[in-house]
Amino acid sequence: MDFLGIHWVEWLGYLATATVLTSFLMKAVTRLRIVNCIGCLLFVCYGFLLTPLSKPIIITNLAIFFINLYYIVKK
Known about the structure:
This protein has helices spanning 8-23, 29-49, 55-74, and strands at 2-3, 6-7. By secondary structure, it is mainly alpha-helical. A hairpin with a 2-residue loop joins strand 1 (2-3) and strand 2. The radius of gyration is 13 Å and the shape is flat.
């Protein structure tokens, strides 16, 4: 399924990118980490949906997600 000639999986990648970038505009660190976690999970889904799947995208974003989660829970 395409929208404007771009496959929906690629749109998911753009959404993940926009979410992570938006997280860095947050002044509150906890809010930044929460929004960044959402972006990381979107990137993990994107990595799994790529053909072939992208282990570097999946591993990196899972690691960042768990680091963010650690600091969210710790606070």
